[in-house]
Amino acid sequence: MKWFGRPDREYREELEAHIQIEERENLERGMSPSEARQAALRKFGNALAVRDNLSESRPFHFWQTLHRDMLYSIRVLKRSPGLTATVVLTLAVCIGANAAIFSVVNAVLLRSLPFPQPEQLVLLWGTGLALGQRSQVSFTDMADWRHESKSLEEIVAFQGWWNPTLNWDNRPEHVAAMQVSDGYFRVMRGAPLLGRVFLPEDQVEGHSRVVILTYSLWHDHFQADPQIVGKTIQLDSVPHIIVGVMPAGFHSLPPSLLTRSPQLYVPLAEAYDNTQRSFTHLRAIGRLKPGASPEQAQAELSVIADRQARANPDSNASRGVHIVPLQADVLRNIRPAVLVLQCAVLAVLLIACANLANLALARSGARQKEIALRAALGASRFRLLGQLLMESTLLSIAGGTLGLLLAYWGVTLLRKAGSSMLLDFPAISIDWSVLLATGGIVILTSLIFGAAPALSLSSTSADECLKSGTRSAGSASRSKMRRLLIVAEVALSAVLLVGSGLLLRSFVTILEVNPGFDARNVFTAEIGLPEAKYPQRRDAVAFFIRLIARLKALPGVESASAVSVLPESGKANHTGVRIAGRVDPPGQELAPDVARITPDYFRTLRIPLLAGRAFTEQDDGAHDLVAVINQTLARNLWPNQNAVGQKIWTGSGRTWRTVVGVVDDTYQYSRDSPKTMQLYVPHADNGGASMTVLVRTMRSPDDIAQDIRTAVSQTDPEQAVFDAATMESVVGNTVATRRFTLFITLSFAAAALLLAGIGLYGVVAYGVAEKTREFGVRVALGAKRWDVLRLVLVEGTQLVVVGLAAGLIAALALTRFLSSLLFGVKPSDVGTFCGVGLLLLTVALVASFIPARRATRIDPAVALRYE
């Protein structure tokens, strides 16, 4: 036989003809059919191997082989369209979910913040105060650090919670303004597109009426006017001159540090007495000099802070400074959640691969003769392994391609569902990094779920398979492998379910915490009065008195009030307090949250009054100054005493205040944070131009929002309303990260549980099919249906018990990494572990019962003829 230059098909057809002729001759010699076939294959089978070995000398052999394997794999997959579609869709969902979550990991953890040399940017926080390790700093302390530091090239102050009313062409609207000291744009390495940045003289009170626009505000609001520099706009009824426009590529600090992304910048004019070091109201950011490290800067500034404390014991005793790299500070809360999500979605992918490997192993019995014949014709094990892996690779590529399309949709969903959690990372997208990572996942997936059946089939003995004439050859090893895969699936599912269960219990525990107020049916809206139009406190007080009177007169309104800082808003103002006869050590003075409120505030939010009375209209400061405190502050000031009637000095007040009431604690930040001391003072005697109105009503949010805007316009047509929202949404934002993480992990856990159940069902069902003859014999010998049922159920449950034991042990070791995401629940919570065990055992019984019930209905007469 000549094969040089001949097509493979023609050569193989001729070879098969020779084999058949030799087989007939062997039969005539008295051989059995199987012996005749084996002898013929031994005589001619090496011919194909010789051809393949000689062909390897040709440089294009590899690509020809690859092409042949690909075409053959496509034909094999087309024979089972239903199975192929199931595998591709399963892989598409799992790979798409991995790509979507990895896009978040890439944007959050792997990609640097969008600033020049972001590793040099550090935040400077005050320490040693009662507020913890992240307090703000005073202007004077920051100025000392700025002048004395040798490792930081610049330190600047900023504030990001001013929301002035912009009036341009008689169109008032609220904008987000960031107040920055001179040098801010040098720290952030930003050069203006038009005009200039701020100068030191712009920081002087009275000379700070200048403003720099962001590119988006300039482009959208001012129609990208190239002559905008030098023009005047009104901010809170005060004229400001536009001196610059920043380019589109300039990024300000992350929104989580500013409450919102700024639309314009104004100078941070220091109007306060710079000698008041105790007035900590600023945030500071610096840039390290080239070669300097955060540790060097920390050591240097700690020495400066110690010197400040010795020179100013009244204000700076026990006060220090803590330097944190900007990226680490931004990621401090989100990093654990993102890592948990990535680990969860990888676990689901592994479970899916194990399931598909099980499916392929169950199907491999039907291909034993095909593989054995190819091996007998001379195909090496390596060639068979490559051919089988080609099939899994094609499935993975198809699943990965479809998965990327799903990932684009998934990224959009993640942006919406996790908008508050991912606020600092708007550039979450499917980029080249995600595509490369997805390609790696496709390759890994093809190896994971394709290796088991490929190794099993390629190691099948051709002689044994062809002699047996059945599909049972190698079934024992494949059955063992399928069982091991199920154990691995159950173990991974147990770990994922325990983690999800702990997060769920934490979330439920947080929701069960009594917030101290009732957020239902309360609508909020913020109003900021311009100082230029309301220069006196009494003017602002009069505005809110008139406004609240109008709101109370609205139909369906139960009560209305106003507060300077909403509870559970994440914001707070602080003030020092002291009482007669008590002297706190320097640096350890009590500094409770302080809020200005109008009468009916406690009634509107239904905050329980524990002692004394609430504020009335008569508490206007004309006579005695009064205060209401929460029970935590009362316990700190007067333990085991009645706080009502006691005197308290508030630091910002003109004289001592009399405590007239004690109310229940509320959470100022979130319910998973410690309770804080709280001090309430009447708005009427303390003033305040920025307040949030609260309206309790059963009416729809849209209707009451419009009525609030109308009431504000009737009170002052030049004022606008912003941040209008229900109180429930304000409270919900405090648990947004937990809710988002919980939703995703629960979804993945449910998918893992479903996949594990399907995989277990498949293994048990295939085992029943393999043992049809055995069950028939048992029934024929007198076994009861219950005996067969119990036998199958025990077999399935045993697999789950082994996997469950391994999974719970692994979960016990891994869940400690969830500690930062848990609240009120230990990582080793017994209830969660027991609940997961019962759930998996229940799934095992359900998945095993269906094939077990089928086994009990086997007809012995049919089973004994089963081959």
Task: Write the topology of this structure.
Layout: H1 8-28, H2 33-44, H3 46-55, H4 61-78, H5 81-110, E1 121-127, E2 137-138, H6 139-148, E3 152-162, E4 165-168, E5 171-174, E6 177-180, H7 184-187, E7 194-195, E8 210-213, H8 215-220, E9 232-235, E10 238-245, E11 264-267, E12 280-288, H9 294-311, H10 313-316, E13 320-325, H11 326-331, H12 335-364, H13 368-376, H14 381-417, H15 432-458, H16 462-468, H17 475-512, E14 522-528, H18 537-552, E15 557-563, E16 593-597, H19 601-605, E17 609-612, E18 626-630, H20 631-637, E19 647-649, E20 656-663, E21 678-682, H21 683-686, E22 690-697, H22 701-715, E23 722-726, H23 727-733, H24 736-770, H25 772-780, H26 785-814, H27 830-856, H28 860-864
Parallel strand pairs: 6-11, 8-10, 16-21, 18-20
Antiparallel strand pairs: 1-12, 1-13, 2-12, 3-6, 3-12, 4-5, 4-9, 7-10, 8-11, 9-10, 14-22, 14-23, 15-22, 17-20, 18-21, 19-20
List the main descriptive attributes of the protein structure presented here.
867 residues, alpha+beta, 13-stranded mixed β-sheet, six-stranded mixed β-sheet, 23 strands, 52% helix, elongated
